[in-house]
Design brief:
This protein is of the alpha/beta class. The chain folds into 2 domains: about 120 residues, Leucine Dehydrogenase, chain A, domain 1 (Rossmann fold, 3-Layer(aba) Sandwich); about 190 residues, NAD(P)-binding Rossmann-like Domain (Rossmann fold), CATH 3.40.50.720. Helices cover about 45% and strands about 15% of the residues. It is built from 14 helices and 12 strands. Strands 1, 2, 3, 4, 5 and 6 form a 6-stranded mixed β-sheet that branches. A 6-stranded parallel β-sheet has the order 9-8-7-10-11-12, with helices on both faces. Helix 5 runs parallel beside helix 13. The longest helix is centred in the N-terminal third of the chain and has 21 residues.
Amino acid sequence: MSELTISPLVDSSLNPILQPMAAMGHEQILFCNDKATGLKAIIAVHNTVLGPALGGTRMWMYQNEQEALTDVLRLSRGMTYKNAISNLNLGGGKAVIIGDSKTMKSEALFRRFGRFVNALAGSYITAEDVGISPEDMVHVSKETNYVVGLPGKSGDPSPVTAFGVYMGMKAAAKHQFGSDSLTGKKIAVQGIGHVGAYLVGHLVAEGADVTITDINQEALKKLSAQHGVKVVAPELIYGIDMDIYAPCALGATVNDATLEQLKCSVIAGAANNQLKEEAKHGQILMDRGIIYAPDYALNAGGVINCFSEVEGLSLEWAKQKAEEIYTTIDNILARSKQEGLPSYQVANRMAEERVQSKGSLNI
């Protein structure tokens, strides 16, 4: 896989934290612990060449700290690529809070987290992500100014994210089917949280044949009744007859097991890190003629929405910028075909080229 490069400062071959940092080119990791509030969090700053690292905070009940560290390292690197390929003057960062978002939230916990964010002095700007709401960010903002996505400002980025995914999906469809029309296309949407639900609305409005799944049965019933879409159990989504697979939940759903079931010819969704093994599964998709719209390029609407708040730009600007995701995906897929390289690799190179044009990454 093509990587952003950085020269390690130490021999990190045996260190379980410094080794992956060096391998992925991270600048800084901050481990956060507060016994009084129960806060356990990790903030990863990947790269700040283009500007301060911006990326959301995810709250998730990880099985252990190593799983959380792996996730935040991958997610923060993805933010560098996402911001770069979207032509935003931002670096990449991410944070994870280890905990159950349904039972462990409190104002004190988020305010303590805000103090940790503030300690980074602006090198990292946070926002909401999985398990976090704009209201949670209000508590964070009481301790730091380095937070976006607040109510009354840019707010929930989900509508802009979903619109960008929809536009990028249309570009991918054009490359596979010869037309960007989604009318009549069989589309499977896995995960109907905020982004997935808004995406379903766009697809139904264009006349797509949509099937949805989620672990939240109540949300499935509500969205199915609203749009008249079909519902399948989570474990059955991979094997249904579909033209387009749209993963909009957690990552790594394109893997050895699911590739034996997937009948799609396009993969385009909002989830991060969709390829479990980027090099291996990206190559398999290309070999099978399945078009993959690289996730961080496709789901950039959320960070575009946040950037509009950082720069004091309007929501209308954010929507227009998100519409450009169509062109971004179009360019990636055209270059992928021309160069005979998997689309993920082309997207990585395009992002790296922009970062490297702004300054050396070597210390």
